[in-house]
């Protein structure tokens, strides 16, 4: 049976683009989604195994693991992509924000990586790639819990790289800006673009390219790939 590519949060944007790219290369793809968006219907028509799961619910995490194991005998790549970009806000208690961020960005990757480790080790080994964020290293005054949870994810990349080497490589991708959201206004876009040296909105293709690079590498593990347009070298905004 063909080794699977497993991507969490593939109903839209980066996850959807990644899933479509792997389908186009002939891979068996298994994805999670929370909301039934048009992208999931597209993936289903392409033969992708789409598993509904709200990772806020432990029973959904457990069911997703069982469903993945029922669909394949080995996993070539596991991408921790599912994410919620939640800012601190007056209508949500801090403990709720913190719990939700740590749940999706740390607890879920922690559980899925360990539960699927044997499938990653099978058939010659595989890769785990975690989508983190530039702000995991810098912090973020408007997304404090989000940034902290992505930092936790980056730390786990290093732990799991040690734990599962040499059979499984574990790496992270820390993007700056990838894709704007529909409700981003022009002022926000201009400010976001100014935060990097290259000043562009690259889109999902740079993630597809980075995932391929990490998968094909024979000498990278425990590495966080800074996919950020030179953001760390850009002057602070005035
Ligand atoms: N976009 C960008 O510019 C940047 C992105 N990143 C990171 O790259 C990755 C991809 O980004 P992007 O495509 O914008 O991500 P999205 O904001 O589109 O989130 C991806 C998916 O995560 C799913 N998700 C969120 N919470 C849950 C949950 N509790 N249970 C199950 N699924 C959930 C959503 O599912 P559904 O839609 O089905 O509800 C959503 O479609 C993310 O990890 C993000 O943090 C980092 C820096 C910049
Ligand atoms: N899950 C998400 N995480 C992030 C998003 C997003 O849309 N979904 N967007 C960003 C921003 O683009 C930021 O990098 C630049 O303002 C960060 N994380």
Automatic annotation (TrEMBL):
It catalyses: 7,8-dihydromonapterin + NADPH + H(+) = 5,6,7,8-tetrahydromonapterin + NADP(+); (6S)-5,6,7,8-tetrahydrofolate + NADP(+) = 7,8-dihydrofolate + NADPH + H(+). The keyword Oxidoreductase applies. Keywords: NADP, One-carbon metabolism, Oxidoreductase. InterPro entries: NAD(P)-bd_dom_sf, Sc_DH/Rdtase_CS, SDR_fam. Its EC number is 1.5.1.3, 1.5.1.50. Pfam families: adh_short. Catalyzes the reduction of dihydromonapterin to tetrahydromonapterin. Also has lower activity with dihydrofolate. This is Dihydromonapterin reductase. The gene is folM.
């Amino acid at each position: 049976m063909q080794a699977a590519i497993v991507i969490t949060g593939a109903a839209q944007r980066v996850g959807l683009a990644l899933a479509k790219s792997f389908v186009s290369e002939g891979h068996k793809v298994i994805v999670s989604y929370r909301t039934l968006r048009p992208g999931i219907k597209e993936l289903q028509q392409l033969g992708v195994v789409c598993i509904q799961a709200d990772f806020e619910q432990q029973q959904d995490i457990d069911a997703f693991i069982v469903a993945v194991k029922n669909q394949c005998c080995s996993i070539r790549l596991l991408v921790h992509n599912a994410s919620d970009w939640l800012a601190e806000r007056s209508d949500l208690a801090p403990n709720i924000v913190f719990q939700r961020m740590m749940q999706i960005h740390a607890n879920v990757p922690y559980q899925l990586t360990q539960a699927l480790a044997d499938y990653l080790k099978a058939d010659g080994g595989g890769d785990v790639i975690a989508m983190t964020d530039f702000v995991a290293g810098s912090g973020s005054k408007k997304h404090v819990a989000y940034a902290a949870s992505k930092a936790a994810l980056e730390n786990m990349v290093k732990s799991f790289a040690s734990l599962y080497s040499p059979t499984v490589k574990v790496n992270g991708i820390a993007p700056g800006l990838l894709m704007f959201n529909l409700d981003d206004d022009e002022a926000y876009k201009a400010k976001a673009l100014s935060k990097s040296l290259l000043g562009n909105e690259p889109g999902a293709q740079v993630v597809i390219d980075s995932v391929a690079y990490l998968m094909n590498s024979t000498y990278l593990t425990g590495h966080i790939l800074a996919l950020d347009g030179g953001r760390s070298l850009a002057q602070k905004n005035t």
